[in-house]
Amino acid sequence: MKIQHVHLSIIKMPLKSPFANALETVTERESIILEVIDHDGVAGYGEVVAFSTPWYTEETVKTCYHLLKDVLIPIVLDRAIEHPKEISERFQAVRGNPMAKAGIETAIWDLYAKRKNLPLWKLIGGTRESVLSGVVVGTHDSKSALNQIEQFMLEGYDRVKVKIKPGHDYDFLQLIRTHYPYLSLMADANSSYTLNDLPLLKSLDRFNLLMIEQPLAVDDIVEHAALQKQMQTPICLDESIVTYHDAESAIRLGSMGVLNIKIGRVGGLWNAIQLHNLCLKHSIPVWCGGMIEFGISRAFNIALATLEGFTIPGDISSSNRFWEKDIITPEVHVRKGKIQAPMQAGIGFNINKKQLIAATIYSEKIVK
Ligand code: OSB
Ligand code: MG
Questions:
Q1: Is the distance from the beta carbon of residue 238 to the nearest atom of ligand 1 less than 6 Å?
Q2: H/E element holding 111?
Q3: Residues 134 and 197 in one domain
Q4: Whose CA is closest to atom 9 on ligand 1?
Q5: Which one is catalytic: 262, 325, 338, 365?
Q6: Helix residue ranges, H only, 187-260
Q7: How many domains, in total, are found in the chain?
Q8: Which range of residues forms the domain containing residue 20?
């Protein structure tokens, strides 16, 4: 296939309610939506999951826009593509910028699967017809957190993640455990602790958490290994694992019992699949992370999570977790802790053009 042109659209939408974590409170979401069109007029869609500011990782909507327009799209338009896996190979010539890379690479996967007339999840060898889903509480206020958990359980979620940070950890988790002793519960610290907090972190073992996510520094694997030796609760890495090499090192050192895989953080679907394969080989369970994303990215997460190694429910919630109206149709819907994998070709969801246009604040067509 030969890509003829790419449409970049910057979209912006308010969240239904603010989403707070150790680093930032997100109230509205900007993203870049990509539409790639090939020589036969077939379209594929991708979504960039970087935020407006670099609070989670270094990339932003603006750095991704620049990389896509001036560096990555020219590489894609340069010559024909036999298989989407070639894209991550071509992109090895460009350092870093995984979220920008993932945006265009995923769009090409959608296009390729549509050309093959196969649902993307089947094309990549997915074995689950429904994926395990979970939801994240987006508040540090104890009372609203309990209300959110109650509401999520009514909506059919059965795995909940909460955000913790120093001063908002032990008592918060104890309160939740008092109300929900058997809830499948995990905590994400977004790198807000250091090894000086060892006594506190060890004390969290008594809450029977599924795992604790990224307790220590964003770029650390050494101290996480030291911490894991002292804690029963499995440590899950998120921010620390960007490349395949990062994961190999973390496995060698024993820094993680679990890996959170985000397609954007690791530079695309092909890289995400390779990380999954590596973890499967080493018996490290994986789950699919979330980025407060719109439906296109959510659809890729569903496809990824159909792979065999995704044995833990991911942060893949319903479209209505964050949005009044998503940009895909039908919207993503969780039932009894699961999401049905779609049967349509490609990502398996249609673009809600009306909603996409309504959310667009800037768009541009990139040709060779
Ligand atoms: O650390 O996993 C994270 C959201 C934005 C950026 C980073 C993270 C998150 C989440 C929730 O925890 C994601 C979601 O439900 O979409
Ligand atoms: Mg995280």
A1: yes
A2: helix 98-115
A3: yes
A4: 291
A5: 262
A6: 198-203, 222-230, 244-253
A7: 2
A8: 3-117+350-367
The ipTM of this complex is 0.99
The confidence score (pLDDT) of residue 22 equals: 85
Q: For residue 325, give both structure tokens.
A: 């109206």
Ligand closest to Cα of 236 equals: 2
Judged against a pLDDT cut of 90, whether residue 125 lies above it is answered with yes
| Residue among 356, 347, 296 at smallest CA distance from 124 | 347
Ligand 1 atom 14: residue of nearest CA: 290
Give the SS3 label for residue 181.
coil
* 188 marked as binding residue: yes
pLDDT, tens only, 99-114: 999 999 999 999 999 9
Tell me the C-alpha to C-alpha distance, in Å, between residue 234 and each of 11, 39, 59, 132, 302: 37, 48, 28, 19, 24
Annotation says 163 is catalytic: yes
Tell whether 238 is in a known binding site. Answer: yes
Shared-domain flag, residues 157 and 288: yes
Closest residue by Cα to residue 190 from 217, 223, 211: 217
| pTM flag (> 0.80) | yes
CB of 164 closer than 6 angstroms to any ligand 1 atom? no
**Is-contact 35 6, C-beta < 8 A?**
yes
